[in-house]
Every structure is written in structure tokens, then in C-alpha cells.
Write a structure and sequence with these properties.
It holds the Pfam family Arc1p_N_like. By secondary structure, this protein is α+β, with helices and mostly antiparallel strands. It is built from ten helices and four strands. 61% of the residues lie in helices and 7% in strands. α3 runs parallel beside α4.
């Protein structure tokens, strides 16, 4: 009976040691040193599915969220992924570009939604304007230049669209105008000098968080 008791005691100690070592390995490699892949996504409180949307990806990289709170999957090759969305661990899902962008900013606490309630309302207005007015005109060269002309007038004495610091409104408009601005001539960029100044400022900020990002070329001596 004593030998059985000792054997059971040794077995129990062995099991405890095994679980202890397993927990140590888990916390060392998965908790404190998160890796890419499914393990990382399972840990996060929320997962952003960008569906290849450049604005969502720019905001995510600018916010640099804690990987324990938020992770991103691009899903660019998934034909079923038609618009960005966010999924919480409880299964709740919210869709839409604006919704996803605001969720990233809030969860990350990166202060890109304005300094107060009024500024946040302005940010919402500009994001809506971008999606409903700017984006539909991007394929029409005449209409998009008229839009840029209006934006140029607005930015005459402003560094950013809302307040004195970068917001999600700037990032969304920047992302929407990127391909358009990439096709403008140097003379056209000079004509829209205030938009060009703003565009280059946002571009420089984005490149600090994404070194591999392609940049629109400006001639400094013509713009400054």
C-alpha cells in the first residue's frame, strides 16, 4: 500500500511539473512574445479584416496597436471579403470602412479621432465626405481636379483637415487621393500647392510607420 502511495505521489508530482513547464513555455512564447499566425489572432481581443483596403491598413500601422488587443488580417485574396470589418472574441462583427477605422483608433487609443467631441464630429463629416464625394470622382479626371481645387482652398491656412494634428480624416483622404496624386504632373501639384503641402506631410508621417511604403514624388524647390 505504501509503495502504491509513493508511486502515486511521484506520478502526481510529475504531472504538476509537466503542467508548470508547459505554462512557462506558453507564457514565454505566446503571451509575452506574440508571433504571427493563428496563435496571435486567437490571443487578440479583436481582429481587423482589412480586405486589402489601404486606408484601414494605413490607420492600423499608424496606431501601432497592442497585439494583445488588436490584430489585422489583410484577406486581400479572399473574394468574399468585400469590405473591411472587425470581429470581437464574443463573435460580434461590425462592417464598413468608417466603422473599422474608428474601431482601430478607439481600441488602440492612438488619439486620431480629434481632441474633443466637436472635433470628432468634424472627423466623421470629412470621412463621410471622402467616401461619398471624393472617392466616386477618382475615376473622372475633371471631377477629381475640381474636388482637389476645393480642398486646396480649405487648406490655405490649415495643416490638417481637423484641428492641428493628424486624424483618421487625413489618413482616409490621403489614401483615397494617393493614386490620383501619383498621376499628377509637377505643374499640377504646384497648382494645388496647399493640398500638396498637406499630402507630403501626411505621406512623411505614414512612411515613419511603414518604411516600405511607396511615395509620391515631389520637387521640393517647386513646392517650398
Amino acid at each position: 500500500m505504501k509503495s502504491f502511495s509513493r508511486s502515486f505521489e511521484k506520478f502526481f508530482v510529475f504531472v504538476l511539473n509537466f503542467h508548470f513547464r508547459f505554462l512557462c513555455i506558453y507564457f514565454r512564447f505566446f503571451r509575452w512574445f506574440p508571433t504571427s499566425g493563428s496563435a496571435l489572432f486567437n490571443m487578440a481581443a479583436a481582429v481587423i479584416h482589412s480586405c486589402g483596403n489601404s486606408a484601414v491598413e494605413i490607420v492600423y500601422k499608424s496606431c501601432k496597436p497592442d497585439s494583445n488587443k488588436l490584430c489585422m488580417k489583410r484577406d486581400k485574396s479572399d473574394v468574399k471579403c468585400k469590405e473591411p470589418y472587425i470581429t470581437l472574441t464574443n463573435g460580434f462583427t461590425a462592417r464598413g470602412i468608417t466603422t473599422t477605422i474608428k474601431a482601430i483608433a478607439r481600441i488602440s487609443e492612438c488619439n486620431l479621432l480629434g481632441q474633443d467631441i466637436l472635433q470628432e464630429a468634424e472627423v466623421d463629416q470629412w470621412m463621410e465626405y471622402c467616401l461619398t464625394k471624393i472617392n466616386p470622382c477618382c475615376e473622372d479626371k475633371t471631377e477629381i481636379k475640381d474636388i482637389i481645387k476645393l480642398l486646396n482652398s480649405f487648406l490655405v491656412d490649415r495643416a490638417f483637415f481637423v484641428g492641428n494634428s493628424l486624424t483618421t480624416a487625413d489618413l482616409l483622404i490621403f489614401s483615397t487621393l494617393f493614386d490620383v496624386y501619383n498621376t499628377l504632373t509637377i505643374q499640377e501639384k504646384e497648382r494645388y500647392i496647399h493640398v500638396s503641402r498637406w499630402f507630403q506631410e501626411v505621406q512623411n508621417i505614414c512612411c515613419t510607420t511603414d518604411k516600405s511604403r511607396t511615395k509620391v514624388v515631389f520637387l521640393r524647390n517647386l513646392l517650398y
